[in-house]
# Entry
Amino acid sequence: MDVKTFEAFSMRDALKAVKTQFGTDAVILNTREKKMEGSKGKVYEVTAAKNSQASVKGASRSQDTSHLKDNLVEMVEYFKTIERSIKSLSEDMARRQDLFRLDAGLHELRTIVYEEMARSKGSLIEGMNPGLSKIFQRLKMMGLDEAEMSKLGEFLKVLPFEKSSDTEQLFQHYQTQAVRWMMKRIKVAPPWNPVMGERAVHVLVGSSGSGKTSAAAKIAHHYKTDHKQRVLLVSFDNKRIAAREQLRVTAKVLGMAYESVERPRDLLEILNKKKDWDLVVVDSAAECPRAKDDLGDLLDFRDIDLPVSFHLTLAMTEKEVQMDRMIRGFSHLGLQSLIFNRLDESWSYGEIFNLSLRWSLPISFFGVGRSVPEDLERASRERVVERIFGL
Ligand SMILES: Nc1nc2c(ncn2[C@@H]2O[C@H](COP(=O)(O)OP(=O)(O)OP(=O)(O)O)[C@@H](O)[C@H]2O)c(=O)[nH]1
Ligand SMILES: [Mg+2]
# Structure
């Protein structure tokens, strides 16, 4: 094993020297700081060993990150030693200078470790041609699932090789293919219009503040004005104070017909009396179902003699895992589609693709702002892809 001690005026430079000479696979054996002879300054010493097991820079290296983990474990141990030193020094005012120095060293090391971690995360795309790696970096930033990215990688790998050294040209070439691949996989829900002479009831469900009421009003208005449907807007929110009032006033402002119901079967009575509705859009109370029983009255919609569909509203400002749990909880109802709200407040859109594919649920609408009824978009493959690729 090739072992060597590197010296520098900062720990960062010493580690850089190790990296330059022994590569990122080097194993750190020891670190210390010592006084410079004949001066007040200090030098930092790092003893490192070259990792002879490490493979040459390239494809196989990108698969094996165990060497990195070893280094990171050692770094973490080193942090602990420094933290212990800081603790013992903190009560001794006379040694404050030492404390500051140690603190700065610790900060520097943390930065290096985080940089290294970020680099190792990107190791999947290491060794790819620059055009392709640019695509994957973008998709990663957009929150696209790792599993989906490897499927895309498999697809792009079998394409005829594009001979070009121009990164931008390669990027454009692979982007076109990636967009095609994605477009084929995105599922968009059919329009909600009922078949001629029939009726359809669409119930919006979701967690607290996910945008059910806003989306219900926007969608009802969309079908009334753009599709000339006879739309009835219904409130089935008996939980939140003034929830019904909120929708009643919104309906009035939008010139929409409005009713409120206490139980799902009340809706059947209303529709039996008033025959002149084609499309009924129902706003419901917030739920956070962990099990089927938590869905309460919503399940009763399935027992009434009407063609009822359930659509789940999700706020894009939530974490993907949270949205995933919501889909799981509401899936006992038999969901027809997903409605993604707050796209205007989100920075990544890969979650739309991930969740729709994972649960095999089509997307019906996007909420793109607070304004009712304007800030609504009917979901389309093009819009999803445009957002993910920033086209
Ligand atoms: N920026 C933005 N805000 C939205 C969007 N959709 C809804 N909101 C806002 O989010 C908040 C909650 O929206 P609601 O429609 O009341 O949500 P809800 O799911 O009905 O809420 P609860 O009935 O209390 O569970 C309101 O302030 C809306 O204006 C959207 O697409 N973009
Ligand atoms: Mg509401």
Summary: Residues 212-213, 237, 243, 283 surround magnesium ion (ligand 2) (CB under 6 Å). Residues 3-124 form one domain.
